Amino acid sequence: MGKKVVVTGVPGVGKTTVINGAMERLAAEGIAYEAINYGTFMFDVAQQENLASNRDEMRKLGKDVQKRLQKAAASGIAAKSADANVIIDTHSSVKTPTGFLAGLPEWVLRELMPDIVVLVETDADQILMRRLGDDSRVRDMEGARAIAEHQEFNRAIAAAYAMYTGCTIKIVRNENFLLEKGIEDLVSVLR
Ligand code: AP5
C-alpha cells in the first residue's frame, strides 16, 4: 500500500513549487512518488462540458457544479492512486463567491483516505506579492488580511479532516528566500 499525501495551500503560496522541488529530491534518493493535481482532473471535465476556459474560473461556478466536478475528480484520482505513493496537490478550502467550499468533504476523504494532509503556508503579505507577480494565472485580488483569514480557515477545516480519517496534519512554511527549507520539510514527511 502506498503513502497518500494531500498537499494544500491558498492560491499563490507556492505549493506546486514546493511539491516539484520535493519530487526532484526524492527521485534522486530513489523514492518514487506520483504528483496528481486535483484541479487538473476537475478542469478536464469542466473543459469537456464548456463550463470554464481556464482553471481559475472553476471556483466561480455554481456550488453544485463545483461539487459535481470535485466528486468526479475524487473517483478518478482514487482509481489512479490505488497502490502507489502519491502526492495530491489540492486545496483545504476553495474561496467561492458564496463562501468557503470544503476541498476535502466527506465523499472526497472516503475515496482518498490520506495518510497526511500538508498545509503549505507563509505570511499573507508574501502571498499577496506572489499573486501580483504571477501573470500566468487569474488570481483573486484580495488584501493580506483576507488571505490570512483563508489560511486560518484552512487550519480549522484540516482539523476536521484529521478527525474523520485519522491522518496527521503537517504545516510546511514556504517563506521568501527559504524555499529549500520548505522543500526539506515536505521531503521529511514523504520519505
Ligand atoms: P490549482 O491549480 O491547484 O490552484 P492554485 O492554488 O492556484 O495552484 P498553483 O499551483 O498555481 O498555485 P500555488 O499556490 O501552488 O503556487 P505556485 O507554485 O504556482 O487549482 C485550480 C482550481 O481547481 C482551484 O481554484 C479550484 O477551483 C479547483 N480545485 C482544486 N482542488 C479542489 C478541491 N479539492 N475541491 C474543489 N475545487 C478544487 O507558486 C506561485 C508563485 O509563487 C510563483 O510565481 C512562484 O515562483 C512563487 N514562489 C513559490 N515559492 C516561493 C518562495 N519560497 N519564495 C518566493 N516566491 C515563491
UniProtKB/TrEMBL annotation:
Belongs to the archaeal adenylate kinase family. It is an enzyme of class 2 (transferase). It is found in: Cytoplasm. It comes from the Archaea. Transmembrane segments: none annotated. It comes from Methanoculleus caldifontis. SUPFAM superfamilies: P-loop containing nucleoside triphosphate hydrolases (SSF52540). InterPro entries: Adenylate_kinase_AdkA, P-loop_NTPase. Its main location: cytoplasm. One of its GO terms (molecular function) is AMP kinase activity. The keyword Cytoplasm applies. ATP binds at G9, V10, P11, G12, V13, G14, K15, T16, T17. Keywords: ATP-binding, Cytoplasm, Kinase, Nucleotide-binding, Transferase. It catalyses: AMP + ATP = 2 ADP. This is Adenylate kinase. Its EC number is 2.7.4.3.
